[in-house]
């Protein structure tokens, strides 16, 4: 079989960029990305894409309407496709067995059921969502239990390793592509078909093939290793603050060992994003279910240190501001979980903002992309604002009206900081390093404080201007 048509179920942060790049690099393949959300598909078909990702607009503009389509017609796209990616969300379960830890596979299951309902002929079904080990077996159970005559399936695991903010570059120049499949003639043939798709632009040597379960586990393992590095350096940042060592110098000295390497050693207010926490919790849950409590406890500690880091940073703000922030005006610069994305899922800024709100602070929040992405927010019709949605969520507060009254969303850093007692940097946006802090200082209440949760500002310069400066992993 030569793959001529691909369908991707799930037009999110993974499905959208991944399929756009496949369409760009495989002009001989028609790619249709489908989603149950009409709004999301309408945005993918508009001038303003639903996600901010550097370079993505350009790729979509080149392919959309030629060999890249976004549609809500899920059944037709499945029927016509030779290969179907399942790229739906796999959040942490919020109730029932495994609540707060296990991955909720209801969206994966519903995608499998739609495929089972409408598929004709032979389909290669590819698990792109991040899933627990042996999830492919569950997908196969759904498909085979509902199999009609003339229909056959092969299931592959092909986890995605892109990072938000650098997704297009990660997809174009992937360190590796991982494909797991069944070790049978049919399984190997399906693996080869998917290899052929990636070989349009990825050198074969960078395409790794394994058994299905290794592929599924490798995805969880990769995220766990990455998050573990951040928790390791963050744990040492506390030691630095207590001793006078500087965490940037420690990271540099440690990272120069070629066995360790310099990446992912940036101490911070804590890691965020939709996946690290959810995937490690999932790994912990799997270990507990496998009766491996020591392994579960080992990985749980990565999450615990991250919680500790977020709490430590928030506590430092309150303590430094004379142990009370009630009615104090505090500017939060950055709300996305990292720079170059408008995504706020599990952003450490949410934790910091919640703690300050609980203590009675008035917050002035500015983020370059989270704000811009919510047009209504721009005009201060705050009802549809992502930031407010995050901070008034029932998990965060049971007094949403009070929270709304305590927050002002700003369209630039100067207005956000004007008249405030303190600035808290939660996201490492480049534009924050280029701000005129002399001007900002003049318009703040004195003593004026800066809490740099990302270690991106010039602390010595700020101190010279007159700011009282606190940061992570360095005594000021
Ligand atoms: P997302 O929430 O942005 O997108 C998922 C989309 O799937 C949503 O638009 C939703 O409407 C749609 N959907 C859910 N069920 C559906 C169904 N039955 N039919 C049609 N559409 C359906 O999620 P995401 O960030 O793209 O993540 C998707 C998966 O990829 C997750 O498992 C995640 O862990 C993994 N992943 C994410 C990233 C990342 O950077 N966000 C990176 C690597 C892997
Ligand atoms: C992460 C992984 O890097 C991807 O490989 C993976 O595909 C993805 O999760 C996923 O499975 O969803 P992402 O969460 O988009 O990607 O972004 P990262 O660059 O990994 O950053 C995650 C968080 O860690 C951010 O809050 C970031 O600011 C923080 N971080 C990162 C640090 O605090 N220090 C660092 O040194 C690096």
Q: Roughly what is the average pLDDT, rounded to an integer? A: 95
Number of helices: 20
- Helix share bin: 40-55%
Q: What is the radius of gyration?
A: 24 Å
Q: Name the hetero compounds present.
A: nicotinamide-adenine-dinucleotide, uridine-5'-diphosphate-glucuronic acid
Output the CATH homologous superfamily of the largest domain.
NAD(P)-binding Rossmann-like Domain
**Shape-level CATH architecture of the largest domain:** 3-Layer(aba) Sandwich
EC number: 1.1.1.22
InterPro entries: 6-PGluconate_DH-like_C_sf, NAD(P)-bd_dom_sf, UDP-Glc/GDP-Man, UDP-Glc/GDP-Man_DH_C, UDP-Glc/GDP-Man_DH_C_sf, UDP-Glc/GDP-Man_DH_dimer, UDP-Glc/GDP-Man_DH_N, UDPglc_DH_euk
Family: Belongs to the UDP-glucose/GDP-mannose dehydrogenase family.
GO biological process, one term: glycosaminoglycan biosynthetic process
Describe the structure.
The chain has 476 residues and is an alpha/beta fold. It has 2 domains: 5-202, NAD(P)-binding Rossmann-like Domain (Rossmann fold), CATH 3.40.50; 211-476, Rossmann fold (3-Layer(aba) Sandwich). It is built from 20 helices and 14 strands. A 6-stranded parallel β-sheet has the order 3-2-1-4-5-6, sandwiched between helices. Strands 11-10-9-12-13-14 form a 6-stranded parallel β-sheet, with helices on both faces. Helix 1 (15-25) packs across helix 3 (56-63), helix 9 (212-243) crosses helix 11 and helix 12 (293-320) packs across helix 13. It binds nicotinamide-adenine-dinucleotide and uridine-5'-diphosphate-glucuronic acid (UGA). Residues 9-15, 35-37, 40, 74, 87-90, 107, 110-111, 129-130, 160, 162, 164, 274-275 line the site of nicotinamide-adenine-dinucleotide.
């Amino acid at each position: 079989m030569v793959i001529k048509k691909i369908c991707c179920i799930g037009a999110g942060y993974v499905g959208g960029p991944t399929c756009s790049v496949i369409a760009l690099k495989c002009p001989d393949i028609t790619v249709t990305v489908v989603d149950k959300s009409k709004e999301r598909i309408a945005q993918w078909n508009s001038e303003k894409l639903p996600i901010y990702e550097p370079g993505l607009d350009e790729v979509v503009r080149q392919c959309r309407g030629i060999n890249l389509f976004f549609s809500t017609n899920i059944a037709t796209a499945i029927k016509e496709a030779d290969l179907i990616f399942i790229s739906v969300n796999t959040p942490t379960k919020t109730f029932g067995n495994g609540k707060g830890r296990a991955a909720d596979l209801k969206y994966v299951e519903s995608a499998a059921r739609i495929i089972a309902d409408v598929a004709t002929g032979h389909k290669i079904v590819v698990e792109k969502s991040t899933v627990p080990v042996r999830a492919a077996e569950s997908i196969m159970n759904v498909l085979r239990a509902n199999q009609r005559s003339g229909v056959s399936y092969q299931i592959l695991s092909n986890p995605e390793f892109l990072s938000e903010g650098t997704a297009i570059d990660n997809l174009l120049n992937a360190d590796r592509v991982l494909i797991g499949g069944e070790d049978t003639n049919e399984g190997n043939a399906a693996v080869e078909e998917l290899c052929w798709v990636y070989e349009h632009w990825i050198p074969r040597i960078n395409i790794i093939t394994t058994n299905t379960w290794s592929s599924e586990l490798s995805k969880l393992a990769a995220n766990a290793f990455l998050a573990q590095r951040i928790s390791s350096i963050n744990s040492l940042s506390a030691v630095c603050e207590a001793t006078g060592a500087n965490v940037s110098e420690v990271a540099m000295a440690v990272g120069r060992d070629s066995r360790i390497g310099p990446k992912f050693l940036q101490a911070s207010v804590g890691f965020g994003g939709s996946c690290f926490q959810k995937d490690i919790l999932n790994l912990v849950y799997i270990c507990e279910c496998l009766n491996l409590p020591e392994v579960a406890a080992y990985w749980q500690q990565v999450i615990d240190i991250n919680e500790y880091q977020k709490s430590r940073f928030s506590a430092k703000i309150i303590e430094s501001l004379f142990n009370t922030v009630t009615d104090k005006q505090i500017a939060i610069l950055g709300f996305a979980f990292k720079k170059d994305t408008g995504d706020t899922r599990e952003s450490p800024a949410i934790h910091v903002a919640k703690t300050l709100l609980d203590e009675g602070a008035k917050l002035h929040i500015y983020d370059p992309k989270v704000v811009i992405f919510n047009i209504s927010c721009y005009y201060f019709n705050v009802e549809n604002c992502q930031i407010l949605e995050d901070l008034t969520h029932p998990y965060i507060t049971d007094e949403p009206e009070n929270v709304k009254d305590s927050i002002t969303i700003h369209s630039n850093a100067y207005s956000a900081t004007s008249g405030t007692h303190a600035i808290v940097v939660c996201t490492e946006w480049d534009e924050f390093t280029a701000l005129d802090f002399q001007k900002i200082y003049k318009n703040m209440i004195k003593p004026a404080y800066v809490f740099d949760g990302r270690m991106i500002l010039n602390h010595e310069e700020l101190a010279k201007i007159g700011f009282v400066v606190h940061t992570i992993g360095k005594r000021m």
